[in-house]
Structures are given as structure tokens and as C-alpha cells.
# Entry
Amino acid sequence: PKDVHPHCIRREGALKTNHHQRTPYQSKDCREDSEAFGVLCEVLKPIFDYVAKIMMANFLDKFEKLSIYCQVLPMMGVLAPGQPFSGIVLNLCVSTRANRDSMDNLLCVVIFLGKLTGGKLCLHKARLVFKGRSGDVIIFCS
# Structure
């Protein structure tokens, strides 16, 4: 219901509700190896900046809406490394049959990195197939 605060919503018959599952947090890997995470963010910063420029040129309204999250989320003074996105997911050596992320908000960015052989990015609903080359960036509405 739209008129009820999320902390007041409980599933019928549930003994307890995890109210903190939507609270922003760093992953365990980031907390345990914060130095490596910092280096990774520094190395990827030029790519994030490039993607942000593309988004501002082609999806300005969505860029501005996404940026609001980074400005208001309680991140202990740390800026989100992939702004305007409040989080990043890095899949290395990925090979999947299908992926559906219901938590994506407005846009999704896929960046092809490395020596690529074979695989393709398939957007099932849009009926599109992309054979990516290293350095390609695909941004689509999610």
C-alpha cells in the first residue's frame, strides 16, 4: 500500500520481518578489503566518468533522477563510485543463461572489458542481441 510506511508492512503469518534489507550498506568484500575496493574504484573512475557523460547527453532526465539517490543516501560521506548509480556490480568471467535484476532502477549499463570470445548480450524482451567488443558500452532502460 502506498499510504503505509515500509516498516509497518508485515507478511501475514510471518514471525519476523527484516526491516534492514533495504538499508544501504557496503558488501562484506568491500569492508574486508577496503584498500582493494578503493584501488578498483580509482582504476574504473575514468570509465564511470565516460558513462556519466554518455548518460547526460542521451538520458539527462534519468541521469538526474538517479543522481538524487546518491545525494540523499546515508553513505557515511563516501560518494558512490559509479555515480549516478548508487551501487555497482562487477561480474568477472561471467557466463550466464539469463539474468533478471528486479532491483535495477531506470537504466542499466553493461561495459564489455577484456579479451572476449563467443558470448553475446541478449535482451530477451526487446529481442535484441549484441556481440560486444572490449570497450563497448550499452545503456538501456530497465
